[in-house]
Amino acid sequence: MSSLKKLAIRGAIWTFAGYGLAQALRLGGNLILTRLLEPELFGLLALATTFLIGLNLFSDIGIGTSIIQNQRGDEPDFLNTAWTMQIIRGFGLWLCCVAIAFPLASFYEDSRLNWILPLLGLTAVFAGFNSTSFHTLSRQISIGKQILVEVGTQIVSLVVMIVWAWLSPTVWALIGGNLVGAILKMFLSYFLIPGYSNRLAWDKKAVWEIFSFGKWIFVSTAMTFLATQADRVIIGKLLSFKILGIYTIAITFALLPQQAIEQFSCRMILPIVAQLAYLPREELRAKILKKRKILLASVGAIAILFASFGDLLVLQLYDERYAQAAWMLPILALGIWPYLLFDTSRQVLVAVGKPNYQAYGQFVKSIHVCLGLPIAYYFFGLPGLIIMVALNDIELYSISAYGLWRERLSCLRQDMQATLLLLIGLALVLAGRYWLGFGTPLDRLISL
């Protein structure tokens, strides 16, 4: 237990340090690229990326999660079979990108998607050849090398994008940077663990175990696409690539606390709880609540800052072309709170072998997004659509909370206390802002 605690502390430091550096690089690169490229190009790439993410999610059978969670996760036959399945999936994703390119180009009436999607889809092929060492290190709660590789490839990718955009301000700059990053990450993955290698293999028992565990991961991630990416698809069709590019800026900032928790959840919570799953539920629940309290306080503070001052941040960092993101960001930032509550506990259900609740929640959330966004836009325009996006995690959280209660791992009381503190903190910060003469975060929306 002492050794596990030390690994957890070291892993947490690496995770948050790496995430902070990655987001700083992302913000810096974004600020430079938005001055070199038009908003339309960001919207175009965001749409293509959305469909690639969708294909990834609709074909996810939880290979990496199986390596972390399965008792055979360290056996060569299991790892090599997983690697072989990963390669097959990568080529399958690329072929799907080729197949859907023309229909999507026709639907969105933009011929550029005919070649953007197949080229962007090559990143899935390269990812398929990534060494399983990434997952092995996650299983061992050894995070440092992963972080260094990811940050390093991000730096190289951004440099390629910026130089290319400066020389030729086209969407090619964004595509080229993504491809270079994927190739470099694949290459470096084979140097993470000395003597570690993968080869083609097909262990039928391993295949069955991965599919058996991954069936709910598959359903969950398929629904996750509709739940988390359909907003881009709908905005790209109902409005324009320009508005989609502006929305992408706002949602990128709003999701920062969520992405930080997702990183921590996948890298730390899942492998740690998987090793503690043998404990009696009451004891396991007590350990979860104790550590989770610190996480909620941290991400809650960040959510308050973005909800209170996000508009000023956007107006300070971006030019007038992106001004509408100023009123979108505070709404979206506050709306992620239910997801933060969900994401700080969802891997507990996965670790104890109950990923089905997440699948149910993502299904209900996908209905909310696919039906709610067009209806909200029809009656209330763009503000109504943004508010509906902000409300889309309530169903997901509710079903996950029910699952935790069923498994005697409920965090409901802690969630209610944290939410009350969040609202009090937000009210105090907003009152201070107004008293200092900075108005409210929605002043620009009101003035439209």
Q: What would your notes on this structure say?
A:
It contains 20 helices and no strands. With 448 residues, it is mainly α. It has 2 domains: 38-223, no CATH class; 229-440, no CATH class. The termini are far apart. Helices cover 81% and strands 0% of the residues. The model has no long low-confidence stretch (mean pLDDT 84).
Global mean pLDDT: 84
Number of domains: 2
What is the count of β-strands? 0
| Distance linking N and C termini | 57 Å
Helix proportion range = over 70%
Low-pLDDT ranges:
none
**In this structure, how is the largest beta sheet organized?**
none
- Overall geometry: globular
Share of residues in strands: under 5%
CA radius of gyration is 22 Å
The SSE order reads HHHHHHHHHHHHHHHHHHHH
- Secondary structural class: mainly alpha
- The number of helical segments is 20
Structure characteristics:
448 residues, mainly alpha, 20 helices, 81% helix
Q: How is this structure best summarized?
A:
The chain has two domains: 38-223, no CATH class; 229-440, no CATH class.
Write the layout of secondary structure elements.
Elements: H1 2-36, H2 39-58, H3 63-69, H4 76-108, H5 113-128, H6 133-139, H7 144-167, H8 172-188, H9 204-228, H10 230-238, H11 241-254, H12 256-276, H13 281-317, H14 325-335, H15 337-343, H16 346-351, H17 356-390, H18 394-406, H19 412-435, H20 443-446
